[in-house]
Specification:
Helix content: under 10%
Strand content: over 45%
Length: about 230
Amino acid sequence: MRLIGCDNVNFMQKVILIFALIMLSYQARAQKPYMTSDGELILGFASITKNGVEEQSIPRFSLFFHGQSLIHFDQNENMGFFSGITIRNVGFIYDEEVNVRKKYRTYNVGIPIGFKIGDMDNLYLYAGYELEMPINYKEKTFIDEKKEDKFNVWFSKRTPTFYNALFAGVRFPHGLSLKFKYYLTPFFNKNYTQNVNGISVRPFENMDVNTFHISLSTMITKGKKVVVGTKSI
C-alpha cells in the first residue's frame, strides 16, 4: 500500500518545533545527554507504479556509505529522545524492460528526531521522523547485463529538495539495532524537465516511486560528553 507523499517544509518545521518544545519541557528532569555514532547496512525496496501499472523492484543491498551521530536525552531509565545528523545511501533497482535494468540512488544528509521507550541500557523500542536532503544523484543503465550508461549529479533537480520519512526499530543490547524506514516523499521530482533531441520531456511524470528499507546498524562509539560552551555536561 502506497502512503501519501509529502514534501512540505512547513510540515518539517512544525515537527521540529514540537520536538523542541517537548525537549524543553523535559530538560529539567533529563539526565546528562550523551552521543553515539553508528554504522549501517541497508536492504532497500521500492513501491513502483509506472503509467498506472505496478512494477516489481529488485532488493538493493548497500554497505557504503552510511553513518550517523546522535545526541540522546534520556529522561529516566525507561524513556528518552534523540536527534542528530545522518548520511545515507538510498535507492532502488528495477527492470525497465526485459533486457534493460535501471539503478537509481541518492546520497542523503538527514536530521532525525525520535523517542525511545524501554531499558535505555539494554533493550528499547524507538520511532520517529527524519528530514533528508539528497545531495548527490546517480543513475545507471544496464542492457543485457552490460553497463551502458551512468552519471551522477550534485543537487540534481531530478529529485525533490527534501525527503520526509518515518522510522521505527528496536535497539538490542551491545549496540545492535534493527530498523524499518518508509519515505513518504516520492523518490523523483515528477516535474523535472529535460531536453531530448530538442523536445522538452518529463521522464518521471508517469512514475510513482516510494522507497523503504530494513537496516541493521551497530554502535561504534557511545557516551561522549556533550560540551556546551567551554563546560562539559
